[in-house]
Amino acid sequence: MTRITHDQATTIIAGAFTKGAELSLKPLGVVVVDAGGHVIAYQRQDGASTGRFQLALGKAAGALFLGMSSRKIADMTAERATFVTSLGPVAPAGVIPAAGGIIVVDADGMAIGAVGISGDLSDMDEACALAGIAAAGLTAQG
């Protein structure tokens, strides 16, 4: 198993910001965490609200906590709302059930970290996360 380096994390963030600019999105907050959910890097664009860190972290760490993207967690909410809402107190960094949290995997498909983004519509946050992961030459969980 490999890990996400600090250089890769900053490349992910830069790639996400570039995609956000291409799409003319609102200011973003982007966090990259390791496989344990610990922050490797975080940046918030000028004008992004201060709550973006906690939201982005909840998307990334929540994805790792359940082993699926935060979009899939959001989809699960329709059928298992009580379960999803109960995760907040037990997940160390919380769980945000909205698209924008993507697990990063190694060549064997093992999680090596995750990216979480908050700032615009959740679909756009997710698009930026995927662009950032690709910019760093890493692989998003399928």
From TrEMBL:
InterPro entries: GlcG_carb_metab_protein, PduO/GlcC-like, PduO/GlcC-like_sf. It comes from the Bacteria. This is Uncharacterized protein GlcG (DUF336 family). It comes from Novosphingobium hassiacum.
